[in-house]
Design a protein that fits this description.
GO biological process, one term: recombinational repair
Strand content: 15-25%
Structural class: alpha/beta
Organism: Ferrimicrobium acidiphilum DSM 19497
Strand order of the largest sheet: 5-4-6-7-3-8-9-10-11
Protein name: RecA family profile 1 domain-containing protein
Number of domains: 2
Helix content: 25-40%
GO cellular component, one term: cytosol
Order of helices and strands: EHEEHEHEHEHHEHEEEEEEEHEHEHEH
Number of helices: 11
GO molecular function, one term: ATP-dependent DNA damage sensor activity
Shape: elongated
CATH topology of the largest domain: Rossmann fold
Largest sheet: 9 strands, mixed
Radius of gyration: 28 Å
Distance between the termini: 106 Å
Number of strands: 17
CATH architecture of the largest domain: 3-Layer(aba) Sandwich
Amino acid sequence: MGQCSSCGQWGLIAEEVKTSSRGSAYQQPVPLFKVERRRERRLTSGIGGFDDLLGDGFVLGSVVLVSGEPGVGKSSLILGMSAGIMESTPSLYISAEETSLQLAERAERLAGSFDRLLVLATRDSDEALAAIEATEARFVIVDSLQALAIGVTPMKEFVDAVVRLAKLREIVVVVIGQVTKDGDLLGPRYVEHMVDASLMLETTGAPGIRRVMVRKNRFGPSDGVRRFALETHGVRMIEESNRLDDTPEVGRAWAGVRVGRLAQIVEVNALVGPKSKGRLLSRGIETDRVRYLLSVIDKHCDLDLSDREVLVAVPSGGVVVDPRVDLALAIALVSSRRSVPLTRPLVACAEIGLLGELIPDEAIRALTQTLPVAAKEIITPRTRPYLREVLEELGLYKPDRLQVVGL
């Protein structure tokens, strides 16, 4: 007893009395009716769209997780979003991925005052926690969780400590985290359970444009989505149109789909060019889905596009995976091939089956009721059963092939 198994020396063990961590800080239960009721105090960034995502800003005493793939722009986005807060609120930026000089150069490019911002470049989680306790910062950014706490247990312990400090000192702590290629947080799911809000940052396919989605929010809406432009001098919210553009355009249609958990109206564009051995290019919709629809259109609408150049795009950026985009895409494709624009603004919301039918979907009613734009006309499987009927009604159906009817 007392011999070190590594060096073989004796007498290296010292007795240490462990004291309770509760001590005098232990809180006694209180009756619910005696709990002081007050509105959550918040810090606002001044960027309306971002504050709206959180329910009117960051709640004091909360921990917010911002996650995304490496290189997506998490640090730039959060620093830009926080510029307004840092002008008037003592703040602390703890970086485990950049030096203090690199952070200073990044902040210099942004249009904002960072006079009240303290910077600490460290990979030591204990040093980071000590800095939060030692400073008067009300707003703290930790960049990033995986670089500061390596391993499952250290990550849990660090997040526990951060949550405790945030509640005790009534400060806001924003923790930046990395995700896997499947979009899951790199580390234990325990982390997402402990934080008060979780935001996911994604690319959209458009240069400099990022989508921020709310995955969890204890103090506000939990299904918000906003797009922001990462510009040289800061961050700008991209205003979403509150109405459909009713200008007739060949090859354009509007789809009612879900993006994440939020109902959205998405513009779909198609360009069917001259014959070119069937070249297909799609941006924003899976290529296999486009090929599927081309086959259905050929079979059930007598319109062969197999030897044509076909270009498909979602102008707003991002990738639409909801199969209800089918109908809008089919309308856009046929409109382009026929050089006939839609004469009235409408939203198409339906998945198309192999038989050319619009597949019944019980969830469509709920989706169409929560679309952000009040569309005058929405085409769904409840209103039209087959794709060909829709095209006929829109003046787009005209068979390429002569149909021979027996006498």
